[in-house]
Amino acid sequence: MSFLVFLLIKLQRLDNKIPAEGLGVKEYLPPYLDPSIQINDLLTGVCFASAGSGYDPQTTNQTRAIPMLDQLDLFKEYLGKLETNIGEEAAKEIITNNVFLVVASTNDMLFSLPASGLPDDVYDSMLVNLTLSFVQELYKLGARKIGVFSAPPVGCLPVERTLEGGLLRMCAENQNQQAQIFNNMLKGQLPILESNLPQSRIAFVDFYNPLISIINNPEQYGLEVTNRGCCGTGLIEFSYTCNQLVGTCPDDSKYLFFDSGHLSEIGCYIFANLTLPGLVENLF
Ligand SMILES: *[C@@H]1O[C@H](CO)[C@@H](O)[C@H](O)[C@H]1NC(C)=O
Ligand SMILES: *[C@@H]1O[C@H](CO)[C@@H](O)[C@H](O)[C@H]1NC(C)=O
Ligand SMILES: *[C@@H]1O[C@H](CO)[C@@H](O)[C@H](O)[C@H]1NC(C)=O
């Protein structure tokens, strides 16, 4: 489970004791759609992510994930439940003071950019616009502290090395460049958006450079393998195609990626450790 290619909106109650235990008051954010979800889960944070989602409706049309705007509808439904349970004022307090993380764009680059036929910079500009309007919608619903992830180095995902990286399975430079065009535009636009939305804190979360650093210096982070996933051959398998034939690697704590598109658990921890201190500073 990883947040590499999925949209996540996390709502988390932040006590004053940050960032010792990351941002968390609990180990995992449960999915909002889990039928067994309890009111206490709603109070401390839930996840609206859908595997394969993206900002571009064309992406979810291909992947059949829950479109971003439908995820916003789920969030509205969540708000209603919160108000019913704890009252309007308390609900507002939670939404205002807690953190939202928005993580998307990888699937847009993998699925919709090539299909669009548009030049990279035109597609990326459209994607940035979709990102900014999504953030604005969250703001309209009450969110004030919003972290927006950049794209990761898409070309260094093990699957993209296999498909686009030649015999040596190098990082696919054209895809990394698409990601960087998007990231640079996004990084420029978020402060402008923030200044237009009173009382908002909107942080750009760099998901690109920390991963490049880990990929290029695995031993510095206690890792051994950063160009293959732990499951199956590590070259191509994703999620449910993972354990059909080959099983998994003996020790996933040495791998940055669990499957060919998603970080391993240790990979998530390392990334979070690199990122959280700066994020907290930017949001509070
Ligand atoms: C989704 O894809 C189908 C089939 O390719 C197409 O007919 C439809 O217009 C698409 N929907 C959107 C919202 O683009
Ligand atoms: C994105 O929005 C900006 C500002 O509204 C606009 O100038 C630009 O043309 C848009 N980009 C695309 C590709 O639609
Ligand atoms: C992350 O930071 C915590 C607290 O400093 C530390 O205990 C943990 O070992 C770190 N994890 C990784 C994977 O670096």
Automatic annotation (TrEMBL):
State the organism named in the record: Lactuca sativa
Q: Please give the Gene Ontology molecular function terms for this protein.
A: hydrolase activity, acting on ester bonds
Name the family.
Answer: Belongs to the 'GDSL' lipolytic enzyme family.
Question: What does the organism's lineage look like at the top?
Answer: Eukaryota, Viridiplantae, Streptophyta, Embryophyta, Tracheophyta
What's the protein called, per UniProt? SGNH hydrolase-type esterase domain-containing protein
